[in-house]
Each structure stands twice: as C-alpha cells, then as structure tokens.
Amino acid sequence: MRLIWTLETFSWGDVQDVLVVAAIIFVVTLFVRGTRAAVIMRGTLAVVLAIALLATVLEWIAFQWLLDNLITMIIVAIPVVFQPELRRALESLGRTGFRTFFTLNGQHYDPG
Hints:
The chain is mainly α.
C-alpha cells in the first residue's frame, strides 16, 4: 500500500533530487577510490547499518533517536578523519582546476 502511495506522489522534482544525490555519491566515490578513506568509509557504513538494523528490529527508541541525530557528529568528524585526502584534493583542485578532479589514476573519466 505504501508503494502505491509513493508512486502516486512521485514528481519530477523527486527525480531531480535523486539524480543530484546520486551524482554527489558518484563524485565522492571517485574521489576516495584507492585511498584509506574508502576503507574507513566502508567499515563505518557497515557498523552504522548493522547498529541501525539491530535498533530497528529490537525497537530501541532511544538508540534510534541517537542514530537519527548522529548527522551532526558525522559533519564534524568527516573533515577530521579525512583531512589528508581533503587536503590533497584541494591542492590538486587549486593547481589544475576541475579537470583533474574527475580523473582516475591520471586518466580522464569517460562515461561513454
């Protein structure tokens, strides 16, 4: 029933929203590929998903609230944890502009 409601209320603005989020995830994935950040992000995501699933299954309301409000902590932690990678990206961006931001191992990314 919820799926039908979702499909009925889906608009073109939602499509644009999903595309922007997908593009951001894609660029971040390109940026961290082959670095320590990729391993850290994968491990962190696995732990958070496991805890969220456990909290949902066991109906831990307070813990679910904590996970919902974790976004503030994540915003503060990301620059601290990924500082070397962020510095490298900003230096590269400052030297060469956006053309190297979308390269993979020195080769330009060609989606086609």
